[in-house]
């Protein structure tokens, strides 16, 4: 008898996530959003779009002043998507 191999469904990062991240980063870099508002919006995005899908968001600054976002699985840390925004003020 052939063994059945269970496959985990491929987790896709919702299309909305990169769009929102780029928009928030640009607004924040241009001074159009306070640090508190930025943090609250990131938290909400994670709660509504990523956490229900078993994903987390990591944010880190880039040396040239931009920001890097990584969407990872909650377990195992597999990177689902990386978004790097260099100088986003322009």
Notes on the protein architecture:
This protein is an alpha+beta fold. 33% of the residues lie in helices and 23% in strands. The protein has two helices and three strands. The protein has helices spanning 16-29, 35-50; strands spanning 55-61, 67-73, 79-85. A three-stranded antiparallel sheet has the order 1-2-3, covered by helices on one side.
The helix/strand series, from N terminus to C terminus, equals HHEEE
Binned, the helix content reads: 25-40%
Structural Rg = 16 Å
User: Strands of the biggest beta sheet: in what spatial order?
Assistant: 1-2-3
In short:
It is built from 2 helices and 3 strands, in the order H-H-E-E-E. By secondary structure, the chain is of the alpha+beta class. Helix 1 runs antiparallel to helix 2.
